[in-house]
Write a structure and sequence with these properties.
- The structure holds 2 protein chains of 2 kinds.
- By secondary structure, chain A is an all-alpha fold.
- Helix content of chain A is about 65%, strand content about 0%.
- Chain A starts with 5 loop residues before the first helix and ends in a 13-residue tail after the last helix.
- Chain B has one domain.
- Chain B contains 8 helices and no strands.
- The mean pLDDT of chain B is about 80.
- Classes of the chains: A mainly alpha, B mainly alpha.
- Chains A and B meet through helix 1 and helix 4 of A and helix 1, helix 2, helix 3, helix 4 and helix 8 of B.
């Protein structure tokens, strides 16, 4: 069953996480839960990107043995998505920190985290 | 009811889009051309045993510079945002629940080891999994433990800002040296590449990762420190 092999499983799990995150972002009312959903969405995209670079029966792109240093291109998985995900994780961390501080400030102004109470821009 | 069905429609539309992407997806059988270039020429061109590090710091070093800049801007905005609206001083009416004995004792034992582990992770970033960002996060977590153990302790923001700006300037300076002494901006072949797989190898990658690690560690610590200063005591 190829649907249960690692690359498909990781890809589908990542997309499931993205969908759960999207569901949380649009349905939850508490701002903190929206931020957690955002993190789930973020993690889902990371899993999808890494799983695209995965190649079956190959190892991590760290050439610490002599056997790996010869004919490297046929023995390692794609290092590029992993490097991109490293960047994405750090940026996701920065965005999450900003969101949390914004939530802190919102709570200070209205003493609530319910998103429906922040309707100043509604008319 | 209308709102719930709208949610369902949005989710279903997104699911259809992603399903269309997944349905015809075939796992790769071989490396993409650019990854193949990294795999075959990377050890000779960059000299880093960890190919991900070679990609992050040298081949796509400009991305990393932007990434560090984003973290810096985030820390700056958070500091500005929190100090802008923060009026009451934390000293007034401050009462914090005492920390448990386990936490305060364990923190004294663990913090030095966490700092050493962070330094190990970013110095060995070109040989083993890890690097500047991971090591910096470990160092920042040591400071989080310190603040958890002693909630009244204050971080010296001047030292943090000094470490952060010095390492940031050093990172850009080494990158600029690459233009004059080697192939281009952030080229790591300024100094000899050394023996492949040794600690002192891969040109300036270990040095760059030390600066990235210090910068990330001080930025994250800065964010934590700002958040700690604004916490309400009651």
């Amino acid at each position: 069953m190829h649907w249960f092999s690692l690359e498909y499983l990781a890809l589908n799990l990542g997309i499931l996480l993205i969908l759960i995150g999207l569901w949380g972002i649009i349905t939850r009312k508490n701002i903190l839960r929206i931020i957690i959903s955002f993190s789930l969405f973020d993690t889902g995209t990371h899993i999808v990107i890494v799983s695209i670079g995965y190649i079956r029966n190959r190892t991590a792109p760290i050439l610490d043995t002599l056997a790996l240093q010869q004919d490297t291109a046929s023995k390692i998985v794609d290092p590029l998505p992993q490097a991109l995900v490293l960047t994405a994780i750090v940026i996701g961390l920065g965005v999450t920190a900003l969101l949390l501080v914004y939530a802190l400030k919102l709570h200070e102004t209205k003493k609530t985290l319910d998103i429906h109470r922040f309707n100043d821009l509604k008319w | 009811m209308l709102r719930n069905s709208l949610y369902l429609v949005i989710l279903a539309a997104f699911a259809v889009i992603t399903f269309a992407l997944v349905r015809n997806w075939q796992p790769a059988e071989s490396l993409s051309p650019i990854a193949e270039h990294y795999a075959t020429n990377g050890p000779a061109e960059v000299g880093a045993a960890n190919l991900v590090t070679a990609v992050v710091v040298t081949y796509r070093g400009f991305d990393t510079l932007g990434e560090v800049t984003i973290l810096f801007v985030t820390a700056a905005i958070i500091g500005f945002f929190l100090s802008l609206f923060h009026t009451e001083s934390p000293e007034e009416s401050s009462w914090l629940a005492p920390t448990s004995e386990i936490c305060s004792t364990a923190s004294k034992l663990l913090i030095p080891f966490m700092l050493v582990l962070g330094a190990y992770v970013f110095i060995n970033g070109h040989l083993t999994p890890g690097g500047g960002f991971q090591g910096g996060a470990i160092i920042a977590s040591a400071f989080v433990l310190m603040l958890l153990a002693n909630p009244k302790s204050k971080l010296n923001h001047r030292i943090i800002a000094l470490v952060e700006s010095v390492s940031g300037v050093a990172f850009v300076f080494i990158g600029l040296l690459g233009i004059f002494l080697a192939g281009g901006f952030l080229d790591n072949r300024i100094i000899n590449l050394g023996t492949f797989g040794m600690l002192i190898s891969a040109g300036v990658i270990p040095l760059l990762y030390v600066f990235i690690g210090l910068k990330v560690g001080s930025e994250l610590t800065n964010i934590i420190g700002h958040l700690q200063q604004t916490q309400k005591n009651r």
